[in-house]
Amino acid sequence: MKYYRTAVMLLLFIGSSGAVRAQAKKISATKNAVIKFAEQRQQELINLSDEIWAHAETALKETKSSKALADYAEAKGFRVTRGVSNMPTAFVAEFGEGKPIIGIMGEYDALPGISQQTTPTKAALKPGAGGHGCGHNLFGVGSLGAAIAIKELLQQGKLKGTIRFYGTPAEEAVGGKVYMARDGLFNDLDVCLDWHPDVEIAANTQSSQAMIDFTVTFTGKAAHAAADPWNGKSALDGLELFLHGVNMLREHVRPSVRMHYVIQSGGDVPNVVPEYAKVWMWVRDSKRDGVEQVFLRVREIANGAGMMAGVESTVTVQTGDYELLVNLKGAEALQKNLEILGPIVYTAEEISFAKKIQEESEVPQTGLNGAIHPLKPTRKDPDNGSTDVGDVSWVVPEISLVVTTAPIEAPWHSWAVVACGGMSIGHKGMIYATKALAMTMVDLFEQEQLRKNIRSEFEERRAGHVLKPYIPDGPPPIPAE
Ligand SMILES: [Zn+2]
User: Distance from the CA of 401 to the center of ligand 1, in angstroms?
Assistant: First the structure.
């Protein structure tokens, strides 16, 4: 997911060494403690992130990555429950007792086929292997670092309550959080936080798109395509008619709707009437209601296409995401901490690394955006894709952060993001996220009124809606490579 903002505001500077300078009096002792913690443990966290970067394991196969994070949490004194929601690579790590309970999520899955070295030109580390093209190696470790910083304060008696880290697998495929939210794992939280690598720093005030992920299969009857085609019923005809109908529907949906598909099966050879055909499709809109209306039309088109071709059509929902429920009170609290931390400052080498990536990616050579911008008003229609954080945001108030870990306009889910996530540009963003998230959690633990304000905004936006996720019973299917 990516968000864009403009303009600059800064109060305090973080040097390229990461050391905090000046104006310490403006920061409470507890916030100073979490900032210091992040700086002292910086190398340890970077090493863990680099380890996960090198594993580059894809959705629900993040065995080593999830183990590295869970073991690290356990070594720091957290109570760890592995394999939650029937997913071997999902886990929960908890420290402390009683209320409030503050949650923070971390991802660690990579994307297939985009292996890359830490070089500003495209060069696979291991050809054909996966790569962290969405920066989830940073995401998981940055969040866990913040959770451990809070644990230190709980242990010292400086904060009261419980910190809980959620190891959430498979964001890029089946959406592990959808299963964890369905199973009620977030229900007792007061507030939950997350962050995501990006091309800018921001407390998120934007929603995301609601989405349904489904397949349509057509089953007909095989026959010799030349000798007796009259004995065949083409599943491919059904599929083609379906897609024609979908593409005509585009004219009659709201501009906020997105529909995209890939054909996964359309027959094997031309001289056999195809008996089986399959399309995998996503429908998105700004809100779940909108998606559902479009999806009803799509179901009818599948039905009609099957009838026209004389074949069976079957629509199977695989998964889906709710739109993200924004929480402005939470975003405002996070924003104050970003303003305390100030911008990320980059070295000349980092800027030239970023510019080389931009040159290779054929985008303007504008370098990196480490600035802090004012909060932006929420757009009516998000245009930035979907996330499984959406489902979580309907059961607990969610505060989301994005932090620069790649150059401006760097193509996301690509080698460019993989390269930055394994070197200092990504590392700086991750440590910054650790600090900002830990500082905001300090506020949440210390200020009951802030928690109340966040909760009442959440209840108002949720308006009594009960989560109904688009997933079947049981664990998610493990995606093929
Ligand atoms: Zn991502």
Answer: 12
